[in-house]
Each structure stands twice: as C-alpha cells, then as structure tokens.
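Sequence only, no structure available. Ideas?
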Amino acid sequence: MNTIDTITLLNRLIVTAKDGEAALRAAADEAYHADIKEPLSEYSHFLGDAARELQAAVHNLGGKPKGAGTFGNTLHRTWIHIKANAYGRDEGVILNEIEADEQAAEARFSEALTWDTPPAIHALLERQYVGTHARHGQIQALRARLDAPH
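Reply:
I predicted one. Tokens follow.
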C-alpha cells in the first residue's frame, strides 16, 4: 500500500473515531446511572484518543489529517437526545441507538487490519481495534443487562 492509500485509510478511521466519540458523549450525557454513564464516557474518551493518534500518524506520513466527524453524525446525536427524552431517558433506548454505530466502527477497524500498511501503522490499528472490540463488548453487556428480566 502506498502512502496516499494509507493516509486515506487513516483519515476514514479518524472520521469514524470522531463520530463515535461524539455519539458516545451524547449517549453518556443522556444516561443517568453511573454504571452506564461511565462506560459510555470512557469509550468516548478512548475514541477521542484514537482519533488524535490517527491524526498524528497522518501528519507523520506528510498528510493532512481530518479534523471532524460527519454532519450525519451531528443529526444522529440530535436524534439520540430527542429519542432519549421522548422515551423518558430510557437507557435501553440510548444503548440501542449507539449499538449499530459501534458495531460499524468495530467492523471498520477490523477491516483496516486487512490492509497492507507499514508495521508501525498496523500496530496502531491493531491496538485500536482491540480497544474498540473490548469496549463494544462492554456496551453489549450493558445492553444485555438492561434487557434481562429483573
């Protein structure tokens, strides 16, 4: 893979991480139980850190890193706030809203590992995939716990 392709891949992942960071922050703002709010917030911080690492990698490759997420994600965050309020801040609804996004983000990081990137970039992508996978699993576990009969 050439440098331009690597920069393009990293910039796509920056947008994915920035979108995830913002959506998870919005979800954490809507949650009210600490055992849900804290993991959402932590995952948001992880993705923010991931985006900054990816931006540094793009810069080091001589490229211009993406700086923000997508407009579609802005609409999604607004939808999270509206839906959460419409359902009385039901945390199950909040987790459902971010579940598909987090599954897609995990898939993007996983797919990035199949690209022929330089060893240092591959190590970065692998570390971020492992972190994304683990945190997505935590979100799924929270959702399962909320869905379990009491």
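The domain at 3-147 is CATH 1.20.1260.10 (Ferritin).
Hope that gets you unstuck.
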